[in-house]
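Shipment paperwork, digital attachment
Item: protein structure file
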Amino acid sequence: MNALQLPVLNPPLKGFLRWAYTLSITSAHEETIPWYYSNFIQLSCKKTFLEDGRQFYIDFFRGQPNELNFNNPFLLTCSVNYTILEHLALDAWPQFFTDQIRNGYYCVVFLDEAKLTPAAAYQQEPFPHHLFLYGFDWDNRFFDASMFDHTGVYRNVQIPFKEFLDAIHSMRHLLREGLTADHHTYFYKYEPHSPYPFDRIVALDQLHDYLNGETHLNRINYNPDNEQAFGINVYDYLQMYYDAVESNDPRLGDRNDVRHLHVLWEHKKMMSERIAYLIEEGMIPYDEELVNGYQDITTRAMKLRDQYIRHEIREDKAVFARIKLRLEQFRKEEPVLLQRLISCWKSK
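Attachment content:
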């Protein structure tokens, strides 16, 4: 077998690669859909980004550890670091990873993306990152991979073995010189879970946490810190972030302005799709105000993201007033819709 591709689908969430990579595997299997809609309700963001100068983030929250670390019930997960892989001669790496793919394992390899032609960081400063491998062609000497390319689009690409080896060699150098930390390489095998029907209790629990701006996940093993905001409170810190961007606050660390609005849109899109799923499955009655309300928020969130993309191409300072207006609207409207969703469940 000189060429093989494991099944993948275009992932429903792409804001962070931990979702794109793992969901591109599970979304190819219909039996994972109830699990998917039972989750991805809660949001979290960083609160102390101005105090400590570290990058602001906003993301879906499913507890700790994150999705790359053994957090998906459908994925058998193994992880190794470069210390364990050190015995591999550099030219043996393609054979090693093609063997894993032959055995049904998707590979998420930690390497220097600046050595990969499709990457935005190509031939620039070193960019330690995870690359998703789902196939290979041994005769033509390339891996089938998924990544964000130089245009910012998540897509499937072909990575020549030579570029792959250059990226591994560079990462080895960065680690030996202490210029970066090892974020491990992961191997995932899809394993059908025991039946996983939609979990109403889990979903309602997350909805209440979102509305209350809190989380109680992982309290046994992880004490919550004061660096994260949750749920409805995320809007306050999003506004604080864009105020700092508008004023060019020198305390801001690395910025990723569009991603924050993209994740916000993905959250609203996910909530709207979940409502449609619940109605289709007969778990809640059709409610026009609920359906239209969330569709409207989703549309406005998408337009806001697109307006910011245009602002980054051609500056338009008016976008900050629109961000403020929309975030205020969402913060006011969303709790009403979520309470309505909870009431629909209780009345069913």
